[in-house]
CMP-sialic acid transporter 2 (Oryza sativa subsp. japonica), 712 residues
Amino acid sequence: MEYRRVKDQESYDVVSQKDIESPGERSLSSTSATSSLSTAGASKGKNSWKLKSIVTLALTLLTSSQAILIVWSKRAGKYEYSVTTANFSVEALKCLLSLIALYRTWNSQGVTEDNRLSTSFDEVSVYPIPAILYMVKNLLQYYIFAYVDAPAYQILKNLNIISTGVLYRIILKKKLSEIQWAAFILLCAGCTTAQLNPSSDHVLQTPIQGWVMAIVMALLSGFAGVYTEAIIKKRPSRNINVQNFWLYIFGMLFNLVAICVQDFDAVMNKGFFHGYSFITVLMILNHALSGIAVSMVMKYADNIVKVYSTSVAMLLTAVVSVFLFGFHLSLAFFLGSTVVSVSVYLHSVGKPQPQK
Amino acid sequence: MEYRRVKDQESYDVVSQKDIESPGERSLSSTSATSSLSTAGASKGKNSWKLKSIVTLALTLLTSSQAILIVWSKRAGKYEYSVTTANFSVEALKCLLSLIALYRTWNSQGVTEDNRLSTSFDEVSVYPIPAILYMVKNLLQYYIFAYVDAPAYQILKNLNIISTGVLYRIILKKKLSEIQWAAFILLCAGCTTAQLNPSSDHVLQTPIQGWVMAIVMALLSGFAGVYTEAIIKKRPSRNINVQNFWLYIFGMLFNLVAICVQDFDAVMNKGFFHGYSFITVLMILNHALSGIAVSMVMKYADNIVKVYSTSVAMLLTAVVSVFLFGFHLSLAFFLGSTVVSVSVYLHSVGKPQPQK
C-alpha cells in the first residue's frame, strides 16, 4: 500500500523527467560497450543472439535502476535543479560518448564509408523527426493534465504498449504471430494491473478529450520509437555511433529550445548547473547509459523487445524497492507480474514460422 | 466500487449455498433437454461438437443467472429457509428429473443394458466418493474462517482453477499444450484480478494455516470434479441419466445427514419447507438445471471446459448486474476480463496436435 502511494508520486516525476528526455532516448556506446559493439559489426551473424540478450539485459537493468535513483533523489530532498538543463546534459553526454566511441573505432579500423561522421542531406534529413514527435508529445502532456490526474495518466500511459505494437506492424511491416499479439495485449493488461491502486478507478471517469489526447500521445510516442528503429535499421552496416551522433545533435537542439522557453531566467540568474548534486550527476549518467541501451536494442533487436524490457524493468523496480525502501507489494502487483511473465513466455514460444 | 462491495457479500452466500449443494453438482436431463440427449447417444460422432457447445452455453447462462438470483433474493430480504433443506430439494429434484428422462428413454428405445437403472456393486461403489469429498471440503469451510475473512476466501477460491488443471492432468492423464497451461494460469490470474477490491490485499496476510486449508480445499474440490468426470466417462455408452440417478441418490443421502446435523430442530418445529418463497423455488430450479448442465459438460466435454464456463459466467454476472442492479464495474474488472478473454482464445488456438 505504502509502496504504491509513494510510487505514484514518484512515477509521475519519472514521467515528466523521462518524457522530456525522450528526444534523445537512443544510444551510443559507452567506453565499456564500445569494444563489443565494434567487434559485433564484424562477426555479427554469430554474435547476434548474444548481443541482443546483452543489450536487452542492460536496458532492463538501467531502466529499473533509473526509477530507483529518482525515488532515492526524492527521498534525499526536492529537485533543486532545472529538469530542462538535466535533459540537455543527458543529450550532450550521449553525444560526447558517441564521439569517444567513434574515435576508438577510427583508431582501430580507420575511417570507412560506414563509420565516417560526415553525411548527406538525404541521410540526415530524417533524424530530427523523432525529436519533433517527442516535442509535440511533451507539449500535449501539459494540456492532458487538465482532463486527467497523475495516477490516471500513469494508467493511460500503458496505451503506449498497444500503439507501439500496432505501428511496429504497420510501419516496419514486421509480422507478429497471433499468439504474440495475444501476448502483447496481456503485457498491456498485466502492466496496468501491477500499477493498480485504490484510486485507479478514476481513470474510468476520464472525459473524451482526455482519452483522445492519451491515444494521440501514445501514437506519437509509438511512432517516434518505431521511426527511430526504421532510421537506425535502414542502413544496417552504418556505424551505430554515427547514427546516434546525429540523433543526439537534434536531441540537444530541441532541448536547448526547451531551456530557452521554460528556464531561461533561472539559468541566466542562477547558472546552468545550479542545484546539481551527486545524485543528479548519477541520474544524468544513468539516463545517458539507458539511452545507449535503447539505441542498441533498436539496432540489434526491435521496439517489441524494448517494450518488454521496460515493462519487466518496471516490475523489477518494484521488487527492489521492497528491499531498498521497505515498500509493500499489493496483490494486484503479484497478479500483474504473473500476467506479464506469461506474456513474456508466450511472446517467445509464439514466434511466427519465418521469424524476422 | 458499489458493485464489488455488494458482490463480495453476496458471493460469500453464493459460496456457502453452492458448496454445500455441490455433492449434487452433476446432472440429469430436464424434459426439454432429454430429447437432445437421447438422440445424441445415437448419432454422437456428428453432433459431438454441437452438443458440447450447447451444454457449455447452458452451463454458462445458468451459472450466471444463479448468482443474479441470489443477489435478487438477498435484496428481497434475508434467507428465511434453511439452506440444508434447499440443497436436499435440489438433489431430489435432479433425481426426479433423471427418472422422468429415463422413463421417456425407456418408452422410446426400450430397456437396454446401457439405460437400465439396476446396477452392479462394482459400478455403484465409486458414486459416493465425490459426495464424500465435497462433504469433507464443506466441513473444512467452517474452520478456514478462523484464519481467513470472506473476501480473502473469495480470492483464495481461485486456487480451484489451478488444482482442477493439475488433477485433470494427473488423474485423467489428459494433455494440455504448453500454451493451454499458460492460458490456465492466465484464467486464474484474470478471475482474481476481476474480483479485486480495496480490501483484497488482506489475503496477503493470510497465516500459513489458512493457506494450507485453502490449498487442501482446492485440491478436494478439484479432485471431486475430476473424479466425477472419470466416473461418468468410464463407460461412455452408459446412459447419463442412470449415472446421474446414482450420483444424486448419494447427494440426497449426504444432504439428509447435513439436515439432521444442522437443522434438525428447525425442520421438526417449523416444517421442511418453512420460509420458502417464489424466489426460493426459482433458485432451487436454477440449481437443479445448473447441476444438469455441469453433468452434461462432464459427459460431453470436460472439467477444463467447466472451469472456463463458470469463469466466463462470473464475468457475465457482473456485466448483467450493471444493468439490473446499477452496480459499477472497476478498472480491475476490465483488466481481469481482458486477461480471461485472451485466456479463452489461447486455450482454443493452443490445442495439442492429437487433441483428446
Observations:
- Chain B has one domain: 2-349.
- Confidence is low (pLDDT under 50) at residues 1-42 of chain B.
- The interface with chain A takes residues 1, 155, 178-179, 182, 185-186, 189-190, 192-193, 196, 198, 200-201, 203-204, 329-332, 335-336, 338-339, 342, 345-346, 349-350 of chain B (CB under 8 Å).
